[in-house]
Amino acid sequence: MELKSLDNKEKLYWKQRLKEYCAAIIQLRIETAKKAMQSAQDSANREEKGSAGDKHETARAMSQLEREMFAKQHHEANRELDMLQRINVDSIQNEITIGSAILTEKGIYFIATGLGLIHFEQMPVFVISPMAPITAAMKGKKTGEVFKFNNVSQQITDTF
Q1: Helix and strand tally (H, E) in the chain?
Q2: Which CATH number fits domain 90-159: 3.90.650.10, 3.10.50.30, 3.30.70.360, 3.20.20.150?
Q3: 32 CB-contact burial (10 Å; exposed 0-12 / middle 13-18 / buried 19+)
Q4: Residue 111 exposed, middle or buried by CB count within 10 Å (0-12, 13-18, 19+)
Q5: What is the pLDDT of residues 23-72, one digit of tens each?
Q6: H-helix segments, 51-88
Q7: What is the C-alpha to C-alpha distance for residues 146 and 140, in angstroms, rounded to an integer?
Q8: For the segment 93-103, what is each residue's pLDDT rounded down to a tens digit?
Q9: Residues whose CB is less than 8 angstroms from the CB of residue 47 and which lie 6 or more positions away in sequence, other chains included
Q10: Where are the domains of the chain?
Q11: For the stretch 36-45, what's the b/e string if a residue is b when 16 or more beta carbons lie within 10 angstroms of its beta carbon?
Q12: Residue 82 has pLDDT above 60, yes or no
């Protein structure tokens, strides 16, 4: 599919599907972290019932640290999903901002959340955070303009 050749209605539909795909990726992270938290908690509970002494305390502490790490991942993924859901992708953006899809000769970017490189509809797409340095380099630019990031210039061939 050649994104540049799509009409505005098709571009909006593509961007909406991309946002939904990103939400599904984050939702999977949430579910994975939740299962890992439960597994770590189950492990800690088993340690309470089984062992005695220093070995028991160490194993329980390790399980607790693991659970806290997964709880943090769970919290971050929920926050990321909440931020993504607030992004409006129902309009064409002539100037790059949050929710924009950007086409350059080097790639496709979507300013939404920091997922990095994903593959969506057989296309590599860089899903980048609104706080990422590359976003700052692009922000406010329009189709035809050039931005520079890491000493590499990229011309914007389309933004929507």
Answers
A1: 3, 6
A2: 3.10.50.30
A3: middle
A4: buried
A5: 999 999 999 999 988 888 887 777 655 555 566 677 777 878 888 899 99
A6: 54-86
A7: 11
A8: 899 999 999 99
A9: 56, 59, 60, 63
A10: 9-86, 90-159
A11: bbeebbebbe
A12: yes
Confidence of residue 20 (pLDDT cuts 50, 70, 90): very high
Give dist(CA 2, CA 46) in Å, integer.
Answer: 55
DSSP letter (8 states) at residue 3 = G
Residues 6+ apart with CB under 8 A from 87: 19, 98, 99, 112
Those residues whose C-beta lies under 8 Å from the C-beta of residue 138, and which sit 6 or more positions away, are: 96, 102, 109, 111, 147, 149, 156
* Conformational region of residue 148, where left means phi above 0, alpha means psi within -120 to 50, and beta covers everything else: beta
Query: Whole-prediction pTM value?
Result: 0.85
As a residue count, the chain comes to 160
Per-residue tokens: 145: 């303009």
Pairwise CA distance, residues 20 & 3, whole Å = 18
Report the interhelical angle of 54-86 vs 8-50 (nearest 10°). 160
Specify the residue for token string 């790490």: 69
